[in-house]
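Notes from the 1:1 (GR / supervisor)

We went over the backlog. Supervisor wanted to see one worked example end to end before approving the batch request, so GR pasted a single chain during the call. The sequence is below; no edits were made to it. Supervisor asked that the structure be written out right there so they could see what the output format looks like.
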Amino acid sequence: MLKYASATDLEDGDISSKITYSSNLNINVPGVYNVTYTVSDSSNLSVSKSVSVKVIATSTPVISATDLEIKQYNNFNPLEYVSASDGIDGDISNKVKIVSSNLDVNKVGTYQIKYSVTNSLNVTVEKIVKITVLSNSKPVIYANDIYVNKNSTITFKENVQARDLEDGLLDVNVLSNTTDLSKVGTYDLTLKAVDSDNNEVTKSVKVYVSDNLETLKNGTVNTHPGIIK
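Structure output shown during the call:
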């Protein structure tokens, strides 16, 4: 506080070095405080002067957000992964805004999101984070229509495959099946596969039940039910 005060005396000249002060000042708590300066000359004559010191609250908010890796095609809300705090205002996460973003969750790549937040003192800070979109390909079911003789015994998943770019070969399950092998007709078979990211795909094929495979539509003969496409 002494650097803000000076004193002079007619006989002694500059006596700033002899200034003392007393105060209840607390620079960590906003408010108005009194500071009393006192100085004595070589004749032991003393004078005092009181001044007011106002401590003004100042604070810079902090944005908490880290670089992320997310899966392609997934729903992603950037505001769910960021928070902000301020020394005066406390939690101001609800004031965070997205200034700019080039994120495309449908394309594998690296993107940037710029966040900003402003506190009650109108102090604004920004932060940029990197979002990496990783491949999340959906599986593909490979299956053909099935041609079978009446009263045959077949496994509807035989020679049917599902593959995923990340997981490789997947299990295929029968989701629905209307086939009645005791009756000639055309039936619906729906297959399902799910990968490790819970991407679910289905594929529907026809099941043709006949008395004679030679009589099937287009003259197509398939002596091996469920041939992979």
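Supervisor's comment: The radius of gyration is 40 Å.
Batch request approved.
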